[in-house]
Specification:
The complex is a heterodimer of chains A (112) and B (114).
Chain A (H helix, E strand, L loop, with lengths): L2 E4 L3 E5 L4 E8 L5 E7 L6 E7 L4 E4 L2 E6 L4 E6 L8 E8 L6 E3 L3 E6 L1
Parallel strand pairs in A: 2-11
Antiparallel strand pairs in A: 1-3, 3-8, 4-5, 4-9, 6-7, 7-8, 9-10, 9-11
Chain B lengths: L4 E3 L2 E4 L5 E6 L6 E7 L6 E7 L2 E4 L8 E4 L6 E5 L8 E8 L8 E2 L3 E5 L1
Parallel strand pairs in B: 2-11
Antiparallel strand pairs in B: 1-3, 3-8, 4-5, 4-9, 5-6, 7-8, 9-10, 9-11
Classes of the chains: A mainly beta (112), B mainly beta (114).
């Protein structure tokens, strides 16, 4: 069966450290993978997209890697801040037609 | 630029009652999505529209759920009759189409069925 697993339900880290979130998938062959941020009571907000032929993407303090052999994406937030506290969702698109399948999310808490 | 607008933000109904949610996508966005999000889970697609045409409704429980997107702009999602298990957040999203992959989400409607 198809699965998208994010490493843990919750992750606590100290301010200033690098947060690393994991997204593993089974029985998908995604054309690309996206990461979204979701705050309580709000809809998800797009952060980064990485295509199957790309190894790494960066945007300010954010970095995403994509390993299609391991079927895994890693999402890094460097120099983390309390304002980074939120739930982070990975989403896969198999066809490139923008039909997204979401993981369950990881709730990140950055402790001051 | 205004984002995706949804109403109501919250709805409490008794089981077996009907309920409707409304979505106004970002101006110019041809593609509109309705998602269901249960507590602690990621969004799950219910239906996708390209303009006024439903191009993917395979996950929509058609015995009780219906949706429409008249004139290819606003959309309404309806549940009739609602069941206890329908309690969740209903998210609407839109994207420009033309191979633009980013989806823009509204704040969602939180439904509680008693």
């Amino acid at each position: 069966s198809q699965k998208i697993e994010q490493n843990s339900e919750a992750l606590n880290i100290q301010e200033g450290k690098t947060a690393t979130l994991t997204c593993n998938y089974t029985n998908y062959s995604p054309a690309y993978l996206q990461w979204y941020r979701q705050d309580p009571g709000r809809g998800p907000v797009f952060l980064l997209l990485i295509r199957e032929n790309e190894k790494e993407k960066r945007k300010e303090r954010l970095k995403v890697t994509f390993d299609t052999t391991l079927k895994q994406s890693l999402f890094h937030i460097t120099a983390s801040q309390p304002a980074d506290s939120a739930t982070y969702l990975c989403a896969l698109d198999q066809t490139g037609a923008n039909n997204l399948f979401f993981g369950t999310g990881t709730r990140l808490t950055v402790i001051p | 630029e205004a984002g995706v607008v949804q109403s109501p933000r919250y709805k409490i109904i008794e089981k077996k009652q009907p309920v409707a949610f409304w979505c106004n996508p970002i101006s110019g966005h041809n593609t509109l999505y309705w998602y269901l999000q249960n507590l602690g889970q990621g969004p799950e697609l219910l239906i996708r529209y390209e303009n006024e045409e439903a191009v993917d409704d395979s996950q929509l429980p058609k015995d009780r759920f219906s949706a429409e997107r008249l004139k290819g702009v606003d959309s309404t999602l309806k549940i009739q009759p609602a069941e206890l298990g329908d309690s969740a957040v209903y998210l609407c999203a839109s994207s420009p189409g033309d191979s633009q992959e980013t989806q823009y989400f509204g704040p969602g409607t939180r439904l509680l069925v008693l």
